[in-house]
Design a protein that fits this description.
about 300 residues, alpha/beta, 5-stranded parallel beta sheet, 12 helices, globular, binds manganese (II) ion
Length: about 300
């Protein structure tokens, strides 16, 4: 059986399904995608009959748009296609037989990886999949992605994404495939423990520095703490929200990538705020894309002042 997986390139929850697939399927290919690349990739693949070679095609931690879902719904392809996503903003797409968006099960928040793991256990169970090392790693990914690690103070769940950022995607995948094949129980290696120690120090220093750079603005009826930053966005957003209790939410602007929103107040839903700016997400964590042309505008603003080129 030949398997293809499309998953989210941006974080642990998108990467871990690749690892699980490699444990289960012998004949397996994958493509990691940004949210905005999903529709183009899948439509081009359908145009080129790319999926014809595969018996089963999965999509995890991502979802197609309504338009693409409609197209797929009219094709035979839908019989071998399965979307497993947990982003609540996509929940309306559950009307399509091949899309399964589950935000939580019995009060426990799901992630792309936890949904895919359950699916594999149900349909493609292997001995390795049932190991403590594998189920524990899946639970770390879920805790990390849903931010529930904070609730249970499971630092290991946070640290796993630090390992991903140090190793890089390819090494992270091959490292954990090897590890899970050879270990019954999950643990960090001594190298990983050192990396984690370095990372904790680096993150704390970074957050301390950013605390002094927050700009508070009233936007759309919300008090927003704004900071320009590229690293540790979830930890940064949460720590800044704790440090500035007067703000409703923190907006982290990464000029190279996107805008992230975080909040810790129960009566604030950042996915509503993100939707004002073309974004989406969860109640406590959301994001929106950079406006088109923003980078050009910044360049113009900085370098266009004293010359005639602009
Ligand atoms: Mn996720």
């Amino acid at each position: 059986m030949k398997i293809f997986l499309m998953s989210h390139i941006a974080d642990l929850d998108g990467i871990a399904p690749v690892i699980l697939s490699k444990l289960v399927f012998k004949d397996f290919d994958y493509k990691l995608l940004d949210i905005k690349e999903v529709d183009d990739f899948i439509n081009e693949s359908l145009d080129n009959d790319f999926f014809n070679d595969y018996d089963k095609v999965f999509m995890t931690d991502l979802c197609v748009s309504e338009k693409t879902a409609q197209r797929i719904d009219s094709l035979e392809f839908k019989k071998k296609f399965k979307v497993l996503d947990h982003h609540i903003s996509n929940i309306g797409l559950n009307k399509y037989s091949f899309i399964e968006v589950v935000d939580e099960t019995n009060g426990i928040k799901e992630s792309g990886t936890s949904l895919y793991y359950k699916y594999l256990l149900e349909h493609h169970a292997t001995q390795i999949l049932g190991r403590e090392s594998v189920s524990y790693m899946v639970s770390l990914v879920r805790l990390n992605d849903t931010w529930e690690w904070k609730k249970y103070n499971c630092i290991e769940a946070r640290d796993l994404s630090a390992i991903l950022s140090y190793y890089g995607i390819d090494r992270f995948i091959s490292n954990y495939v090897d590890f899970l094949i050879t270990h019954e129980n999950f643990e960090f290696t001594s190298l990983e423990k050192s990396l984690i120690e370095i990372d904790h120090k680096r993150m704390n220093d970074y957050i301390e520095e950013k605390k002094n750079e927050v700009i508070i603005k009233d936007i759309k009826g919300y008090k927003v703490g704004i900071v320009f930053a590229e690293n540790y966005r979830s930890e940064l957003g949460n720590k800044l929200a704790e440090y500035y209790p007067e703000v409703d939410l923190i907006a982290i602007i990464n000029l190279g990538r996107s805008i992230s929103y975080r909040c810790i107040k129960d009566d604030v839903n950042v996915s509503n705020f993100a939707s004002f700016f073309g974004g989406k997400g969860h109640q406590k964590a959301a994001g929106s894309p950079l406006p088109i042309g923003l980078q050009e505008s910044v360049i113009k603003y900085i370098f266009g002042r004293d010359n005639n080129e602009y």
